[in-house]
Amino acid sequence: MINLGSLFGKSSPPLAGLDISTSGLRLVELADAGKGVLRLERHAFEALPRGAVVDGNIENFDQVAEAVRRIWKKSGTRAKNVALGMPPASVITKKIILPAGMAEDQLEVQVESEASQYIPFALDEVSLDFDVVGPAPNSPDDMEVMLAAARREKVEDRVAIAEAAGLTATVMDIESYAARAALERAAPAGKDKIVALFQIGAGITHVSMLHNGDTVYEKEQAFGGNTLTQEIVRSYGLAYEEAETRKKSGDLPENFRADVLTPFLESAALEVTRAIQFFFTSTPYTRIDQIWLAGGSAPLPGLVELIGGRTRIPTAQVTPFDGMLLAPGLREAQVRADGASYLVACGLGLRRFG
């Protein structure tokens, strides 16, 4: 069996979650505070140069590896084990049904045989992992198995980045799975609830629709915070890096909100409403009970209210660190302000606990 780096397995503490995205790196380290309570030990962000990571692909190895070294030093973590994420578009997942009660070696052989039907690459070109989900619905003699596969070179790129920074990648997760785990911990949806999660990244918005905690619909849309940054560049004649910095700090001219931010918010709300309508027309579902916003653009002032008003669905920003204790030195206001952009990193950090 070609292993996808313990995609579904348990990890050994200590471990830090590291989210590698287009805009930068985000690190989260969690600890068990006892009695079922988690403690946020540290979180950190390190920007990446433009073009270092594009559409989830590492384009400049040295720049990303050096950024990993910087974020580790900045965070102060002593963890040498790291949980990394793969972009959903880079991973093929499939639920398959197999006879229950097979020995581990038999199961591996059977999974490889089944995988060849769903993976459009030779098996020696992919990293493969699986997890037994449980009994198959309406078939007690069978079991449901989740299969996950990714091009080996994509997995090895991330493993090599960790190794170049003196770290060991002990867990390789899927970013959308990590985000879902963090959301479920912070905001359990309740029975029979349908939840929409919009992760607005730099260039891509990842849409996930969840029913009873299971993903029933996923889609990526070519829209993100880079659009706003580029409009700031065009409107005020700033270099891209300066525009990105000033976007985050709010240090922009008085007309920014009316002339630049509001049109971007309108576009974001339109993307959300279109995604919801497509979900309704392409699935049996006809309602959504809650919209959650995550990613670097989620905290933009007015976005939550605009989307909630347009969709008439309760809308809120994800705060994945809710319910956690904070280590000394962490400021609650800053943690809450940054939280929406750390959803994936938080989910990766949760892999410390299996």
Automatic annotation (TrEMBL):
Residues making up the signal peptide according to the UniProt record: none
Top-level division of the source organism's lineage: Bacteria
One Gene Ontology term from the biological process aspect of the record: cell division
SHS2 domain mapped to chain residues: 15-183
Cited Pfam families: PilM_2
PANTHER family according to UniProt: CELL DIVISION PROTEIN FTSA-RELATED, ETHANOLAMINE UTILIZATION PROTEIN EUTJ
Family annotation (NCBIfam families): pilM
Protein's UniProt name: Pilus assembly protein PilM
Species whose genome carries this gene: Massilia litorea
Higher taxonomy: Bacteria, Pseudomonadati, Pseudomonadota, Betaproteobacteria, Burkholderiales
